[in-house]
Write a structure and sequence with these properties.
The complex is a heterodimer of chains A (about 120) and B (about 230). Chain A is an all-alpha fold. Chain A contains seven helices and no strands. Chain B has a two-stranded antiparallel sheet.
Chain lengths: ~120, ~230
């Protein structure tokens, strides 16, 4: 939800393209975390093949953090799509450029959430 | 009984997260606002059985699906709603949701969403950490309260939600038509995402940095083609 803002806060230099499978910028271990997130979403059990690599990079607690994040956002996306939650006004305005650049406006749910 | 005890997970999980899992499981076993406990447990069982349609198969037309109650207490219509929410939520449209709600009523629809979105994170974390999924609770007795909260209004979502005095993000009031379940859901969200630190851009309460968490979150949303 706040990748750019949180990255700017610590000069991490995140690249928003990481959200759609592109470069992740300077987020530490961003490429591996993105690969884990993608695998975890497509086949949670198969994603465990990446566990050792993720632990080597960010520790066991980091692996659990990543898993927890994937899990909770799988609830959040279903809440948003099931209820048709309109994007909050401030977020709608703040993300216009990024949404266009990343192609998010073409998602089916955009028709529900742009308000 | 601690069903989600820390020692049941192969890796260390924040006790605050496990506590919300316990609360969700306890909530499944009692009558909700619109569904009985047996129906609530049946909805979660249906969530677990939901499968994507085979490639090329047409999405069923809601109009042609029966709402006659089956042996598990749920109709084929509710089973399709659960399936769509569980494995095909990215293709939910306002027209589809409106058609469903016209037949189920707002309360049954929102509570169904609530049950799916509370239990998917629990099951998914178990799957990711290699822990067997928790057995579903034995449903208790009792009737749903069927109470519609005061202060609701229509503000752009598919369903009414709290409007009187509201100043938070839309996601936090999404299921406020069923306040008890919305509270349980927000317990899950808060414990698994930001804790009390949502407004802070630098996190130290989690092992990953906030940009790392947000990257995983953003990729998860994109894989699910969720615009919000």
């Amino acid at each position: 939800m706040l990748l750019r803002a949180s990255s700017n806060a610590i000069d991490a230099g995140a690249d928003l393209h990481g959200a759609v499978g592109g470069a992740t910028g300077n987020v530490a271990h961003g490429g591996l975390l993105m690969a884990y997130a993608e695998a975890a979403n497509r086949d949670p059990e198969a994603a465990r093949a990446l566990d050792d690599e993720v632990i080597a990079a960010v520790g066991e607690a980091g692996l659990v953090d990543a898993a927890v994040t994937v899990a909770v956002f799988n609830g959040l996306v279903r809440s948003a799509d099931g209820i048709g939650i309109p994007l909050d006004d401030t977020m709608l305005a703040a993300t216009a450029e990024a949404r266009a650049e990343l192609g998010l406006d073409s998602y089916a749910g955009a028709a529900n959430s742009r308000g | 009984m601690a069903e989600f005890g820390a020692n049941t997970f192969p890796r260390p999980v924040d006790p605050a997260v496990l506590s919300t899992f316990e609360a969700v499981w306890d909530g499944l076993a009692v009558a909700g606002t619109w569904w009985t406990a047996a129906e609530r447990v049946a909805i979660v069982a249906a969530t677990r059985r939901s499968l994507r349609l085979p490639l090329g198969e047409t999405v069923p037309d809601i109009a042609g699906i029966s709402d006659a109650v089956g042996p598990d207490g749920l109709s084929p219509l509710i089973h399709e709603v659960v399936r769509r929410l569980s494995v095909d939520a990215g293709r939910i449209t306002r027209d589809w949701a409106t058609a469903v709600i016209e037949r189920t009523g707002v309360g049954h629809y929102v509570e169904t969403v609530a049950l799916v979105v509370q239990t998917v994170p629990v099951d998914m974390l178990c799957d990711l950490l290699g822990r067997p999924r928790q057995d579903l609770p034995v449903p208790g007795m009792g009737e749903p309260s069927r109470v519609v909260p005061d202060g609701l209004g229509q503000e752009g979502a598919f369903v009414p939600w709290v409007v009187d005095g509201w100043s938070g993000p839309n996601v936090a009031r999404a299921l406020s038509f069923v306040p008890e379940d919305n509270s349980l859901r927000m317990g899950i969200v808060t414990s698994m995402y930001s804790g009390r630190h949502f407004e802070e851009m630098v996190w130290s309460h989690r092992s990953l940095s906030r940009p790392q968490v947000e990257l995983v979150a953003a990729r998860t949303s994109a894989v699910n083609e969720c615009f919000y």
